[in-house]
């Protein structure tokens, strides 16, 4: 036995081709045990493909995968029981009631502690007595989440878990993620938008067209993200401030906005260079300064829109 447990998920050069189309171009991932790892990306980026490869629902065209130290191709039912999986598309057309369906899943996933299903249903606000085919999209999603969480697996693989959930239920789900992490479980989740993952994830991979275009901690994304700034100076200092803003690195879109009589205000976008900005602004007679919370969503859209990755 080694002193440290293996990473929850490791991939090296993971590649998936569908005919002539390459959905994943050799991605490398390391997801530490006990962490929450988010993968975000636009439609068709390869998020679902990555997750299905981890679950051995599909097989790689190349590269290596280890899940909880095992090869998913040979891990079989024993490995599967250590994982909770929420698929991106749930097909729940059955006449059976939620409780019966979960009992059926429990035969596959292994032991579920008494009370856990009811506790999860209570938290998410799901009536387990209704036939699953009569449930709304959001309520089906809750059922999917319960089946992923109920056996308290070592690894949770959640494909767009908040899809269809209202904001209150999303908050409850985020609390469930925090608790999972506190209990040492590992979470790998996907989303289209960062706002969902930034509250919960330690690390985020941005996937686009089968390539990881950015891999960073949420803290690091925040540091490099675009912020809106607003500076107000006395009228006599306006031209000098404008000249400073125009030459500062990381400052773009400077515009003159109306302010009270005798003062001039400028708004701009600032990326990363906060220290340089504050020091340069400090040379002027500043009446007011606002630096907004960074807009991570906008930064991520920048990654989505970057020129095609060439390999
Ligand atoms: N069974 C398949 N046969 C052929 N191509 C496929 C298949 N499954 C996925 N693809 C293609 O692989 C690429 C990645 O798809 P994938 O479903 O992994 O993306 P995604 O990031 O999960 O997207 P979304 O956000 O829309 O769910 C897409 O171009 C998709 O069309």
From TrEMBL:
Compartment list: Cell membrane
Topology of the protein relative to the lipid bilayer: Peripheral membrane protein
This protein's UniProt keywords: Antibiotic resistance, ATP-binding, Nucleotide-binding, Transport
GO BP of this protein: response to antibiotic
One Pfam family matching this protein: ABC_tran
SUPFAM superfamilies in alphabetical order: P-loop containing nucleoside triphosphate hydrolases (SSF52540)
Any GO molecular function: ATP hydrolysis activity
Domain annotation ABC transporter: ranges: 9-234
Protein name: ABC transporter ATP-binding protein
Organism of this sequence: Agromyces albus
